[in-house]
Write a structure and sequence with these properties.
Blueprint lengths: L1 H12 L37 E7 L17 H9 L1 E3 L2 E2 L4 H10 L28 H7 L3 E7 L18 E5 L10 E3 L5 E3 L2 E2 L2 E2 L8 H15 L6 E6 L11 H5 L7 H26 L6 E7 L23 H4 L3 E4 L8 E3 L3 E2 L3 H8 L16 H5 L8 E7 L22 E6 L2 E5 L19 H9 L6 E5 L15 H17 L40 H30 L1
Parallel strand pairs: 1-10, 1-11, 2-13, 3-14, 4-5, 4-10
Antiparallel strand pairs: 2-12, 5-8, 6-7, 8-9, 11-12, 15-16, 16-17, 17-18
Cofactor: Ca(2+)
Family: Belongs to the sulfatase family.
Keywords: Calcium, Glycoprotein, Hydrolase, Metal-binding
């Protein structure tokens, strides 16, 4: 059966997609910049700390950029990447909060207590307040720091907000996903609120503006009001292309030939985001920043395949530790790069941006010991070897334990029922339940035949709890070598044991009814006082007993909320 699956894989891989022509110089529908200020110039000497623009997109699949062979038009990203350095051995985390926390702290999530799931709107949880953040280090180095877009690192009290964690200004959302026009976010039936904030205030007046447009225009305004003689850091965390799938009609029309409706809307959102990046680049040139700037582009996790995204030809999707969940789109574009127009296969992880950018800014890293990231600028700019040789993708003790895992299967040193993944050199090990493991081709056709790719998943063996791949030779994770190379399995398990000894307790508190937006004027925002302690607990109980207690707590909360909602509605009536 596995033979048939691989045959199907090769047949589908022969499909080709047409590309529409695109004019880089065509005026954008997003821009508030009317003219094209782009002009050729020679790279200056690296005499001053560079302006840093970090662009993070949400749920953009590995396949969903033009230079990865996509049917989606991304001319701006294609050009910026082609003129800079493409990072083709670049890793992120499989979901939102973990990637953002590791970018901002330079630490693996086992070292911040955020190794399980995401921070949910009603949880009294946020990025640990004892962590010195990337923008704080850049402020110390004399930078003006600004954030535009999605935070998703907690907000239950004011100390957790972006403006308290190193950003001079903030415009964006605090939760994980909002409507692109109304900025409403529901965290369950009847638990809805507005989520767009300017600084620490609710930005009610911005409702109705498409977020991708709004965020690009805000970046342009920041650049227009700042002096290019002073270093600036702008973190642009687009909401795009996370659900809900919403885009202006003129972008959807370009993809009217796509039979799959979700893919059509998703493609429109990607292209709209691409134009927003073009306008940011134009603004950098127009206002005099570009020649001394570094633009970093990164996705936050793999694409969500049932919402139009594609990670083809990688295995898996968002939320999984297969390559489709953790291998990201990444590139660096800058006149300051010494060896441009090339592809780098240096191993890079999202934690590396912290020390890399602070070093570029001539900041001080001596007072932030224990970082998990490395300074990879020499590898990016000069083509030198990456200082990174391994990546801990994660260890999550709370995720559902694999039914067939055991300590015995882990040579007596590791319980293979625990969800974990690590890469060391060319080897990658997964234990526990890594998540949905199919290979899913782009959903460009209506009712794309899907029976062939399920065969491989079924023959992969549902009774397994250990997988080993040579990622260099087998980037699509088709050939499990765990039985052929038990020596490598044991070596990587030993590394997991080492990392696990350094892990801090998981921070995943129960939801708090005080977070309901109705208590905050109809908007999501801080609800705990500054005197309230950090509400988290040391989770070390056996998983089964904890699940029972957690379920009981949730039931009580739901019952309380139903009664509370009834009272609130009756008062309104």
């Amino acid at each position: 059966m596995a033979v048939y699956a691989l045959t199907g894989f090769s047949l589908v891989s022969l499909l080709s997609f047409g590309y529409l022509s695109w004019d880089w110089m065509k005026p954008s529908l997003v821009a508030d910049v009317a003219t094209d200020p782009m002009e050729k110039s020679l790279p200056p000497a690296f005499a001053r700390p560079p302006h840093i623009i970090f662009i993070l997109t949400d749920d953009q699949g590995y396949h969903d950029v033009g230079y990865h062979g996509s049917d989606i038009q991304t001319p701006t990203l294609d050009r910026l990447a082609a003129e800079g350095v493409k990072l083709e051995n670049y890793y992120i985390q499989p979901i939102c909060t973990p990637s953002r926390s590791q970018l901002i702290t330079g630490r693996y999530q086992i070292h911040t207590g955020l190794q399980h799931s995401i921070i949910r709107p009603r949880q009294p949880n946020c990025l640990p307040l004892d962590q010195v953040t990337l923008p704080q280090k850049l402020q110390e180095a004399g930078y003006s720091t600004h954030m535009v877009g999605k935070w998703h690192l907690g907000f239950y009290k004011k100390e957790c907000l972006p403006t308290r964690r190193g950003f001079d200004t903030f415009l964006g959302s605090l939760t994980g996903n909002v409507d692109y026009y109304t900025y409403d976010n529901c965290d369950g039936p009847g638990i809805c609120g507005y989520d767009l904030h300017e600084g620490e205030d609710v930005a009610w007046d911005q409702s109705g503006k498409y977020s991708t447009f709004l965020y690009a225009q805000r970046v342009s305004k920041i650049l227009a009001s700042h002096s290019p003689k002073e270093p600036i850091f702008i973190y642009v965390a687009f909401q795009a292309v996370h659900t809900p799938l919403q885009s202006p009609k003129e972008y959807i029309y370009r993809y009217r030939s796509m039979g799959n409706v979700a893919r059509r809307k998703y493609a429109a959102m990607v292209t709209c985001m691409d134009e927003a990046v073009k306008n940011i680049t134009w603004a950098l040139k127009k206002y005099g920043y570009y020649d001394n700037s570094v633009i970093v582009f990164s996705t936050d996790n793999g694409g969500q395949t049932f919402s139009g995204g594609s990670n083809w030809p990688l295995r898996g999707r968002k939320g999984t530790y297969w390559e489709g969940g953790v291998r990201g789109i990444g590139f660096v574009h800058s006149p300051l790069i010494k060896r441009k127009r090339r592809t780098s296969w240096a191993l890079v992880h999202i934690t590396d941006w912290y020390p890399t950018l602070v070093s570029l800014a001539r900041g001080n890293l001596s007072n932030v010991p224990g970082l998990d990231g490395y300074d990879v600028w020499p590898a990016i700019s000069e083509g030198k070897e990456s200082p990174r040789t391994e990546i801990l993708h994660n260890i999550d003790p709370l995720y559902n334990h694999a039914k067939y895992g055991s300590l015995e299967d882990g040579f007596g040193i590791w319980n293979t029922a625990v969800q974990a993944s690590i890469r060391v050199g060319e080897w990658k090990l997964l234990t526990g339940d890594p998540g949905y493991s199919d290979w899913i081709p782009p959903q460009t056709l209506t009712n794309f035949p899907g029976s062939w790719w399920n065969l491989e998943r079924l023959t992969d063996g549902l009774r397994k709890s250990v997988w080993l791949f040579n990622i260099t030779a087998d980037p699509y994770e088709r050939y499990d070598l765990s039985e052929q190379r038990p020596d490598v399995v044991r070596t990587l398990l030993t590394r997991l044991v080492h990392y696990n000894r350094t892990a801090i307790p998981v921070r995943y508190p129960a939801e708090n009814p005080r977070a309901h937006p109705d208590f905050n004027g109809g908007a999501w925002g801080p609800w705990a006082s500054e005197d309230d302690g950090e509400e988290w607990e040391d989770i070390r109980e056996p998983l089964k007993s904890r699940n029972k207690k957690k379920k009981c707590k949730i039931c009580k909360l739901r019952s309380f909320f139903r009664k509370l909602n009834t009272r609130l509605m009756s008062n309104r009536i």
